[in-house]
Structure formats: C-alpha cells, structure tokens
C-alpha cells in the first residue's frame, strides 16, 4: 500500500503490485525479513518438503489413528459373538449314548473354542488400552505410533477372523444366519481388516522397517518368557534370511511381537492367571513346530498345557460369559427357548 500522487495531486492510498524477488534473490532496493509465528490462522505450507516420504506420511497421519481405532472395535464384536455361542452351547441339548439329553457344551470342541475366545478377550482389552496410552504420549514418534497400531491390528484381526469363523461353525447351521450376530460380525471385521491400512501391507512395512533398524517398539520386559523367546527367535530367523524372505513370513513376525506385548499388558492389568495360561497355550499351538524346535516343548506338552488351562477355566464359563457384559447388546433368538419360540412364530408361514 502506498499513497498515489499524480502531478502533485494526492489521490489517496492505493494498492500497488511490486516485484519483490525472482524466486531466488530479492530485487534491488527490496528487503525482506521473516516474521515470527503468529497465533490464530496459519500461513499455507506450500514449500517443497525436505523429505517427500516423511511429508506424505504426515499428510495421511490420521490413517494411523483409524488403524488403532478400528482395531479396538473387534473386541465388542468378539464379546457378543462368544456370548451368543456360549449361551447357546449351554442351552442346546442333544441325545447322549445313554439316551439322556446332554448339553453340547459338554463336548470338548465347544469348550475349547469358547474358552479360548474368552481368554483372547481378557488379554486384548488391557492390550488395547495400553496401546492407546502409548499412542497418546506426546514423546512417541510417528513411526512408533504406526508400529503400535499395526501390531495391534495384526494380532486382533488374525485372532478375530479365526475365532468368529469357528464360533459360527460351532453353532451349526444356526451360525450362518445374520440374526445370530456371529456371521455378521465376521463380515464387518473383515472390512475393518482392510480399512485404514490392509493388514498384510502394514505387516510388510512394519517388519521391514524393524529389521532395517529404522526404529524399534517397546522391548520385552522378561526376555526369558515363552512368548518373548518366540518373538526374538523369529527376529533372528528373519535377520538371517532377510534378502530372500518371502512376504508371508512378515505377518507371523509382527503377530509374535503383538502376542508378547498383549500378554505383558494382561499381566500388568492383573488378568486371571488361568486365562493368561490359556491364552499363552493357544498362541503356542499357532506355531507349534517352532516351540518344538527351539523351546524344547513337545507337541504332547503343548496339548497338555492347553488341556490343563481349559480344565481350570471351564467351571467358571457361565460367569465369564456374563462378565463380557454383552447381554444388553445380544438379541439373538438362540439365547433362550422363549426367544426361539417367539422368533419361529414370527416367521412367514405358507400352507
């Protein structure tokens, strides 16, 4: 802005277009000084970034928040599904060899799946809360935030897809109907596994960056623990074969790290030791051959540990199902005979 004077006559303040610089240096007679940051609205950041990759990751930084947030949603899905399957297994009877009605929960196939799912829920809840706390710490680097969220998503997605598929199967044909929540929950969580970062892509990036030493996630508090030993063993294997490593090896590596972190968070939160033992036994059986080869844990010992943990948890099954607090959110007709009769009476009938 300047005062316009024409032939000695004042024409008032007017805006003028003046060339300040040519993009490299200031024009003659022009001086520019950089002002300090001002409060309120911020100037547009249109300069070329020093690091294009870091800039891109900062632009899409909210995706990592979505990765963490969506992953936590699978826990209530698991709770409602295991509640329906568990209560149905207690209520549903079949004729036994002696001709007397026998609840299907008395079968090992029902017990094992339902109890393992309850153990996963007991461990995943404190693990998720701990990840959120780590994510919110101001001193946590963006790369570590990504690692925390990706690890949580890898562990919860893998466990949820496996558990929901089997829970639906254990309900027989009933598990295929949408009104029983389980198959619906499975499809929803499949979508969550892709949204805000596909799990496999997240695992490939995370494992590669950890192996290259670009950053690290919280180390094991007890390196001698069984799951920590497994995690370190897979890291050692991956370091040895990193140049020829197949892409399928990265997910187990990230999941091993997540299982260890989840177990430690559950111990810290004071989760029931029987549920902790059951969770650990289930994780061991997912990579049984590694524990045979590197931990000296025979297949017989692995199954014995699993069976012992199941026996310790079984007497408390009904109490643990109620402890999920899923009753208020489950309206499946499988939960009681009265609900089932009311449901069948509401179906369209043809004569």
From TrEMBL:
Domain Acyl-CoA oxidase C-alpha1: 74-210
Entry GO CC: peroxisome
GO biological process terms on file: fatty acid beta-oxidation using acyl-CoA oxidase; lipid homeostasis
InterPro entries noted in UniProt: ACOX_C_alpha1 (IPR055060), Acyl-CoA_oxidase (IPR012258), AcylCo_DH-like_C (IPR036250)
GO molecular function, one term: FAD binding
Highest taxon, organism lineage: Eukaryota
Listed name of the protein: Acyl-CoA oxidase C-alpha1 domain-containing protein
Source organism: Penicillium alfredii
């Amino acid at each position: 802005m300047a005062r316009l004077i024409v032939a000695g006559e004042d024409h008032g303040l007017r805006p003028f277009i003046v060339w300040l610089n040519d993009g490299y240096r200031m024009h003659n007679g022009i001086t520019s000084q950089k002002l300090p940051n001002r409060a309120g609205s911020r100037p547009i950041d249109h300069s070329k970034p020093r690091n294009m990759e870091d800039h891109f990751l900062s632009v899409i930084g909210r995706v990592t928040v979505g990765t963490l947030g969506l992953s936590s949603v699978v826990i209530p899905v698991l709770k409602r599904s295991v509640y329906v399957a568990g209560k149905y297994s207690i209520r549903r009877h079949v004729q036994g060899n002696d001709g007397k009605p026998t609840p299907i929960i008395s079968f090992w196939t029902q017990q094992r799946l339902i109890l393992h799912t309850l153990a996963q829920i007991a461990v995943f809840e404190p693990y998720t809360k701990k990840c959120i706390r780590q994510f919110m710490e101001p001193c946590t680097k963006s790369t570590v935030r990504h690692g925390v969220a990706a690890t949580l998503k890898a562990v919860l997605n893998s466990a949820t897809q496996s558990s929901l598929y089997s829970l639906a199967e254990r309900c027989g044909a009933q598990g295929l109907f949408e009104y029983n929540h389980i198959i619906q929950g499975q499809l929803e969580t499949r979508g969550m596994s892709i949204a805000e970062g596909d799990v496999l892509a997240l695992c490939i990036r995370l494992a590669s960056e950890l192996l290259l030493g670009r950053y690290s996630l919280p180390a094991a508090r007890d390196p001698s623990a069984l799951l920590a030993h497994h995690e370190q063993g897979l890291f050692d294997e991956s370091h040895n074969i990193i140049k020829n490593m197949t892409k399928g090896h990265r997910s187990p590596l990230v999941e091993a790290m997540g299982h260890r972190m989840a177990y430690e968070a559950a111990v810290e939160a004071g989760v029931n030791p029987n549920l902790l033992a059951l969770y650990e036994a289930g994780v061991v059986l997912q990579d049984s051959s590694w524990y045979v080869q590197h931990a000296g844990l025979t297949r017989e010992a692995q199954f014995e540990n699993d069976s012992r943990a199941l026996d310790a948890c079984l007497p408390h099954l009904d109490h643990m199902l109620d402890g999920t607090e899923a009753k208020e959110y489950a309206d499946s007709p499988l939960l009681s005979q009265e609900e089932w009769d009311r449901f069948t009476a509401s179906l369209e009938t043809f004569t």
